[in-house]
Amino acid sequence: MTTTPDGLSPRSTRRGRRPRAASSRDDPCARCGRNIPRLAARWPEGRLCFTCYNTAIHTHGTCPNCCLDRLLPGPPVADGEPVGGTCAGIDIDFHCQRCGVEAGHHRGNLCARCVLREDLHALLGGAPENPPLAGLIDALCAADRPESIITWKRSPKVQRLLTGLGEGSIPCTHEGLDTVGGNPAEHLRALLQHHDLLPPRDPYLPQFEHRIAAKLDGSAEEVRQPVHRFATWHHLRRIRDKAAAGTPTRAPIHSAKQENTETIKFLSWLQTTYGRTAATCTQPDIDEWLATGPSTRQLIRTFFVVAKKARLNTTVTVGHRAARSSPSLTQDQRIAWIYELLTGNSEALPYRVAGTLLLLYARPSPESSPCKSPTSRTSPTVWRSHSAPVPPTCPNHSPDSCEPTWPRARTCAPAPATTAPGCCPALSPDDTSTPPPSPTGSEASASTCAEHATEPWPNSSSNAHPHSSPTPWATATRSPSSTPIRQRNNGPAMSAVPFPTETIDLIPPRPSCPEAPSAPEWGSARRSRQQTALR
Q: What is the pLDDT of residues 340-357, one digit of tens each?
């Protein structure tokens, strides 16, 4: 048994953000009480840390003292609401020198929005006259936190992009941004599309078009030509149709990228190892490639399906990938993990408790066997069980002791087979033999008792022959002087009557042949033959 679980990599157990920096000096912040290493401001209430100061200069609302809508940098009053700067005794004028808005000063006496606009104009070479660029500056300066945009534009890539847009070397269009590429260009494209400064366009389709050429750059002609045809006429055509219909293309493009990459790998290996191309590839080459690598190599199947349709190579076949599942955790590893979670310190306590419960109790339950319907007989003729109640067991099989203990119990003895011209009396396609004749006398009573004890009433079988009765033949007993009894399939059960009896049909067959007589004539003819046999 392994002492250390496989894949165990201790990580930081600290949750959430990193703790704030604190100083060893006993000089706490006047609002949060934390010892501050650096001073942000000194107001009448005391020293403030940078966290509390930034929160104060970004709080706007109605001052509870002067009832004006303004900046509220002051400390909360008794009711918990912050107050304005002048009401709190702060002798700082928070109005911007350029726009006059009361806000925190970012650079000198300017607010963050004015500072951002000034920096963007400097990068673009002045106030832009191009409507998309002018709208872009207005959109950036209208952000909720302009300080975030100031941080974003400090990137050298962003500065080069904005400078190129201002100079005109990069057109402010989709095609111009495509020539630059990268995350800054895509971010600007998304902003321009969001504010209706550029027409909307699928974000993944151009990337896939450029990727095709970039992926095949430097490949041999035997590799580049078939892969370029496959990517252009199979993948790119389908993805363009999806983009035109407004269907998301991210998943199809991701799948197409994988298939193109694996196809390039296979054709390059085939060219380097055996000197063959896609047209001269053989089945052993395919089998060797699939057997000696990861399951992602199976993605070459789409290429060879298309190649077979194009008559490029019709001799090879790549089957569908069959998942090879294996237990993700052995018993020894499971026990080692439980030991580590109980005694180690590689995870936080909530994770260790959850992992222990998972490893102890989240075990796969054994597959329950399907409920099998009991059969009524063990003879070749199979009858399905019925949902009707089963009659109670008869304590004695003698004719005198078979009293009707179950109300209106049905009997299940098969009746003699009678065949109409052109009809088959079989009960199922597998059993075409004629059912045995029904017993008479004491044998009939004894068999009736036995059927009561063991068999439920059969329901109509879906496997019945089309020319046979929809339900197995059943018989009942009556005295010779009584009238014939006709019983429906789902009617109440009938009780058995002791011998002497006369065997009749509860459910006469319903032949579907055109030559067969009607149902009443068929039943009458059958009863006449049975009465003749009894005499």
A: 888 887 778 888 898 889
User: How many whole angstroms separate alpha carbon 522 and alpha carbon 530?
Assistant: 13
- Which residue type does 402 have? C
Mean pLDDT of the chain: 74
Helix axes 250-273, 283-291, angle to 10 degrees: 110
What's the pLDDT at 332? 85
* The pLDDT value given to residue 499: 43
H or E segment at 251? helix 250-273
Do the strands 69-71 and 46-48 form a parallel or antiparallel pair, or are they unpaired? unpaired
- Rounded CA gap, 276 and 289, in Å? 14
Tell me the DSSP string of 63-87.
-TTT--EEE--SPB-TTS-B--TTT
Cβ neighbours of residue 468 under 8 Å, at least 6 residues apart?
423, 424, 425, 426, 427, 509
**What's the pLDDT band for 337 if we cut at 50, 70, 90?**
confident
Supply the DSSP symbol for 45.
T
Q: For residues 279-306, b (16+ Cβ closer than 10 Å) or e, as one string? A: eebeeebbeebbeeeeeebbbbbbbbeb
**Nearest-angstrom CA–CA distance, 6 and 466:** 63
Q: Checking DSSP bridges between strand 502-505 and strand 475-478, what pairing results, if any? A: antiparallel
User: How many whole angstroms separate alpha carbon 177 and alpha carbon 179?
Assistant: 5
Phi, psi angles (nearest 5°) of residue 35: -65, 120
Predicted pLDDT of residue 331: 84
Distance (Å) of CA 323 to CA 262, 295, 298, 513: 18, 9, 11, 52
Could you give the dihedral angle defined by the CA atoms of residues 521, 523, 526 and 531, in that order, rounded to the nearest 10 degrees?
-110
What 3-state class would DSSP assign to 213? helix
413-463 pLDDT, tens per residue?
444 444 444 444 444 444 444 444 444 444 444 444 444 443 433 443 344
Sign of the CA dihedral running 288, 291, 294, 295:
positive
Does position 363 have pLDDT exceeding 70, yes or no? no
Each residue of 492-522: pLDDT tens digit?
444 444 444 444 444 445 554 444 444 444 4
Distance (Å, whole) CA 461 – CA 430: 13
Q: How far apart are the first and last CA of the chain?
A: 85
